[in-house]
Design brief:
It is a single chain. This protein is 37% helix and 10% strand. It contains 38 helices and 29 strands. It has an eight-stranded parallel sheet with strand order 22-23-24-25-26-27-28-29.
């Protein structure tokens, strides 16, 4: 937007030429913060002139019009002025003050209430008479600091409606001279008004104000009323024609901006009469090409998907984080939070897109990643974001661009940012250069969505590529993406990624501002989807029957947490229910997809299904899921596949582009090709199960669903598997492959596999439905199964429970950090073969509460008896709080009449470690002390940590008070806790309470001096059970060492006293050791 303002004819810094000129004030360099500028006496109009002159002295290029003495005020220049001030630490507050100042000085055009008083104070209340407006003499004086509303007098008069004659449209009489409306306005550029004033030194005024009718076209006014000053084109509620628009102010906080969705415009221009209401002064927010592109983009993304694709069931979005895979590794992986620890993104889309705003510096790119396994609905969610913007629910963004990442795997180095935004998507967008320039001015109003980020080639190197902030020369797509990820290109935009969390991709997301994860359907959400599916299909009479079919197949019910699989189950259920009442769903995933493809294969061209399977496998090897029409072996195969829904056009894709409707369907077809292909050697087949990783040329398991489908296709009876798809001849060709895989699976030792591979083996054995393989796998399971840190999905929990039941032995399970859902945890805990289990404290307590509420007394009792926390290590404040909740649960149940006795987990705890570090340690230790006495069997209390807990003397004093109740304590480790002589004295006073049980005491690396050593020496003879005492690396001298050595001679029961410390001369230490060999100097 170009704002035009009056100026004196001549230099900006010349002498004043009239009493009403705004440039009569000398402005020097402005110093201080922006708040000082707001509180200064500078007139805002003069300020704009001043900085306009500064721009004229620089390199800023301005537009020139036909009038030689007419200058312009460029709002882009004002925007740049604000950018220069962003370094001020009070910038945020300053922006808020700008909004308040503008709203105060330039009130609403109706001048209701107090705004009338402000206006009248400056022009005089009695000067408005007849057909002219008189201005007071004070206007010509030097501008004074404007009073704020609370400083104004209360008795000011208000405006009165004054009718104008027809001549008022062409001339307004002021004391300094008339203001003339030039009738030749039609010759001016579109959207400009020219106003001239005689005798004031102001040659002309241009106001950009939308469409203006010619003077001859304006009808005679009747009853025209002066409402106030003209309204700013881009700032509703502001009457200043020179106020910068919302789009021109960089990074202004949202309260100071007017949302596009809520923007209102005045219907009538203040210079027109009501009779000319058809002439609107509503101005476009942007230039016309930008407006047109905005509308076309809304039309592109606003279309709602039809059919089953339009079924919307909200999926929980969980905040995610990365953590180190091990203490010795720098690589990070997606953390697995406990179920009760999950932090749901409250607020849906808004929460995701505002997640990184709090920690973002001004004009810095925000990178937000949404992760999820295949079939969890990431692409559907990305489309929902685009549709939400098109419907006006994301007003913080002016433009949204959604680009599938498979479109970016292109060679060449002749691409620019304009290509990425407009040309490389599935449907190229037509945009003028003016649109691209507008986007570059406000990148913070741009949302760029990259869907399917895992399909990019070598995506892990984007953070290390080189790219400038605005490459002048075209570069590769890799360079463009590197510039976006390194926050150099289109700086300030929001970059939203969707991806599968696999491989080294997670390393590329380590610097993302926010991570979220799609958790899939809950049981209730899956059932809601089934109901809506049959409702949208017009088969509401089959809804209950479909739910019954699903509940009869627990494996498929557990797999329904995946939206893709839930939809596949609905499709097969719909086909079966149309055939008759005896319908039954298959019991495996392989059977599910055989049922879906079996009917399509009946009328297929010869070899069409095999050709499609080969195509799916080849695409998967290249990490691709989309293909072009010319990649099909024949037009008949393409026509058949499209007619049966095996391939389809992606949303907004080009006509020649096709894709498989789901990733799991591509995996099934890839497995079908492996089962049929003669190109794959039989001895190479086991590697595609991905159970034992190879050191040389490892198999890239991008099609991660292939192993389970491959086992099912080869081992399930041919009559209802391969034979149903391809006929008897194809089924006979897999006999040799079946023998090879059976021999391989039976040689595997499940006890030697890692947790993830063990679960995959169980899935493959379940899909195979071959009794020999299943029995071998379940009977070789070890008695202690640890899934610590391995995510357990609902299908994992179901298959694991089925295997444990069939094993015929007792098991101990470690389910910590698995993210197992409450229903899965309850089903495993309720198995009679599970005698002990460990799980997150918060999840276990929540399970107990749920069982108690539902009246499942027997299962509750079993869950309490089997649960153990031995040994327990507190590594965070949450661990201490969860332990406190466990103790509180015991105390609550012990006080009730229906339950009595201690919880076995609390009663049997023998080892407790506390390792929170120097920051959280002192805060959490008092909470631990309060519950410590509940552990009556505690034998080992370890308060040592590599990062030092530093509980100090206060912590030792609190701990000492619990010694009389810790009758079984044998080991007390107080190393590295910043204990001084005072702490040693408190400890020595309380140690006799542990005289009968304490075997080992460690005070290694503290701050104990001679006084503290004397206190310990005095109590040492009383510790009749003590065998080992460690006081190394303290600060006592030879005097303290001699006191300890003398006390040791009276303690024949002590076996070792570790006493080396650098403050004792080595000769003294050697002498003491020679006198008593039990003194250790290691």
């Amino acid at each position: 937007m170009r704002c035009l303002a009056p100026r004196p004819a001549g230099s900006y810094l010349s002498e004043p030429q009239g009493s009403s000129q705004c440039a009569t004030m000398e402005l020097g360099p402005l110093e201080g913060g922006y708040l000082e500028l707001l509180n200064s006496d500078a007139d805002p109009l003069c300020l704009y002139h001043f900085y306009d002159q500064m721009d004229l002295a620089g390199e800023e290029e301005i537009e020139l019009y036909s009038e030689p003495d007419t200058d312009t005020i460029n709002c882009d220049q004002f925007s740049r002025l604000l950018c220069d001030m962003e370094g001020d630490e009070e910038t945020r507050e300053a922006y808020a003050n700008i909004a308040e100042l503008d709203q105060y000085v330039f009130q609403d055009s109706q001048l209701e209430g107090l705004s009338k008083d402000i206006f009248i104070e400056h022009i005089g209340p009695d000067e408005v008479i007849g057909e002219s407006m008189e201005m007071p003499a004070e206007v010509g004086q030097k501008s004074q600091k404007r009073p704020f509303p609370e400083e104004l007098p209360a008795d000011l008069k208000h405006w009165k409606p004054v009718p104008f004659s027809s001549s008022s449209l062409s001339c307004l009489n002021l004391p300094e001279g008339p203001i003339q409306f030039v009738p030749t306005i039609s010759t001016l550029p579109h959207g400009l008004w020219q106003i001239s004033e005689a005798g004031t030194g102001v040659s002309s005024i241009f106001i950009y104000h939308g469409e203006v009718p010619q003077a001859s076209q304006v009808p005679p006014p009747s009853g025209f009323t002066v409402h106030g000053l003209p309204t700013s084109p881009d700032r509703p509620g502001s009457t200043s024609p020179f106020a910068p628009s919302a789009t021109d102010l960089p990074s202004m906080p949202e309260p100071a901006l007017t949302s596009r969705a809520n923007m209102t415009e005045h219907k009538t221009s203040p210079t027109q009469c009501p009779a000319a209401g058809e002439v609107s002064n509503k101005l476009p927010k942007w230039p016309e090409p930008v407006e047109q592109f905005y509308r076309s983009l809304q039309d592109t993304y606003g279309a709602e998907p039809a059919g089953p694709d339009g079924i919307l069931v909200e999926v929980d979005l969980v905040q995610a984080r990365l953590e180190r895979s091990s203490s010795k590794s720098l690589e990070r992986e997606l953390a697995t939070p406990d179920w009760a620890e999950r932090q749901l993104a409250q607020g849906g889309l808004a929460e995701v897109l505002l997640a990184a705003k709090e920690h973002r510096r001004p004009r810095e790119t925000r990178v937000i990643a949404v992760l999820g396994k295949a079939g969890q609905g990431k692409s559907y969610w990305a489309g929902a974001v685009s549709r939400a913007w098109a419907c006006g629910r994301l007003p913080q963004y002016d433009f949204v661009f959604s680009v599938p990442c498979h479109c970016l795997n292109r060679p060449g180095d002749a691409y620019g940012l304009q290509d990425l935004l407009f040309s490389l998507g599935p449907q190229p967008l037509v945009a003028a250069d003016e649109v691209f320039s507008h986007i570059l001015k406000r990148p913070d109003r741009v949302l760029l969505i990259l869907d399917g980020f895992e399909e990019l080639e070598a995506q892990d190197g984007f953070l290390h590529s080189t790219c400038g902030p605005a490459p002048a020369e075209p570069c590769s797509l890799r360079g463009l993406l590197a510039g976006l990820f390194q926050k150099k290109l289109l700086r300030g935009c929001t970059l939203l990624l969707t991806a599968r969390p696999r491989g080294r991709l997670v390393q590329s997301l380590s610097k993302a501002d926010a991570l979220f994860e799609l958790s899939g359907f809950s049981m209730e959400q899956a059932q809601a989807y089934v109901m809506r599916y049959f409702e949208s299909s017009g088969m509401t009479e089959h809804q209950d029957r479909a739910l019954t079919l699903l509940r009869d197949r627990p494996l498929l019910l557990s797999h329904s947490h995946s939206p893709t699989l839930c939809r596949a189950v609905c499709q097969l259920s719909e086909a079966l229910l149309e055939l008759g009442e005896d319908a039954k769903l298959p019991s495996t995933l392989t059977g599910l997809y055989v049922g879906l493809l079996g009917r399509a294969a009946l009328d297929s061209p010869p070899g069409a299904l095999a050709e499609l399977a080969k195509l799916a496998w080849e695409l998967g090897r290249r990490h691709q899921s989309t293909l072009q029409e010319d990649q099909f072996p024949s037009a008949d195969v393409r026509t058949w596949a499209m007619a049966k829904g095996l391939v389809q056009h992606p949303p907004r894709a080009a006509e020649s582009e096709l894709a498989f409707p789901s990733f799991l369907l591509q995996c099934f077809l890839g497995a079908l090709w492996l089962a049929l292909s003669g190109e794959i050697k039989d001895k190479e087949l086991p590697q595609y199960l991905a159970l034992t990783p190879r050191k040389k040329r490892p198999y890239d398991n991008w099609l991660e669903g292939v192993p389970r489908f491959l086992a099912g296709l080869i081992f399930q009876p041919p009559a209802r598997c391969l034979g149903a798809l391809l006929g008897p001849s194809a089924a006979a060709s897999v006999d040799r492959k079946q023998k090879v895989l059976a021999r391989y699976l039976k040689r595997l030792q499940p006890g030697t596999l890692r947790a993830r591979q063990l679960l995959e083996l169980l899935h493959c054995a379940h899909e195979a439905e071959e009794a020999g393989i299943w029995q071998h796998v379940v009977q070789e399971l070890p008695g202690r199964l640890s899934f610590l840190g391995t995510r357990l999905t609902p299908p994992d929990a179901h298959v694991l429970g089925k295997a444990l039941e069939a094993a015929g032995q007792d098991f101990s399970l470690d389910l910590r950090s698995t993210g197992i859902c409450p229903s899965g945890l309850g089903s495993l805990v309720g198995l009679s073969c599970v005698t002990r289990f460990r799980a997150a404290l918060s999840d276990t307590v929540a399970l107990w509460e749920s069982l108690q509420q539902h009246g499942e007394t027997k299962l509750l009792q079993a869950a309490e008896e089997k649960f153990t926390i031995e040994p327990f290590k507190a590594k965070s404040l949450k661990d201490v709080e969860d332990l406190g909740k466990l103790v509180q649960t015991q105390r609550t149940r012990s006080s009730s009449e229906d339950t009595a006795g201690e919880l076995p987990a609390v009663r049997d705890l023998k080892k407790l470690e506390f390792a929170l570090g120097p920051v959280s340690g002192p805060q959490a230790f008092p909470k631990l002390v309060r519950i410590l006495t509940a552990f009556s069997s505690l034998q080992h209390l370890d308060l040592d940590a590599l990062s030092e807990n530093k509980i100090g003397d206060e912590g030792v004093s609190q701990l000492s008070a619990t010694f009389p109740q810790l009758k079984s304590l044998e080991t007390l480790n107080l190393s590295q806790n910043n204990i001084t002589d005072l702490g040693a004295y408190k400890l020595a006073e309380a140690l006799p309470s542990l005289a009968a049980s304490l075997l080992r005491l460690s005070l290694y690396n503290n701050c104990i001096c001679d006084v503290g050593a004397e206190s310990l020496a005095r109590v040492l003879p009383d510790m009749v059970s003590l065998r080992v005492m460690d006081v190394q690396y303290n600060k006592f001298t030879a005097a303290g060492a001699q006191q300890l050595a003398a006390s040791l001679r009276r303690c024949p029961h002590v076996e070792t006293l570790a006493m080396w410390t650098p403050t004792i001369p080595f000769s003294v230490q050697e002498h003491l050791q020679q006198q008593d060999s039990r003194i250790s100097l290691r």
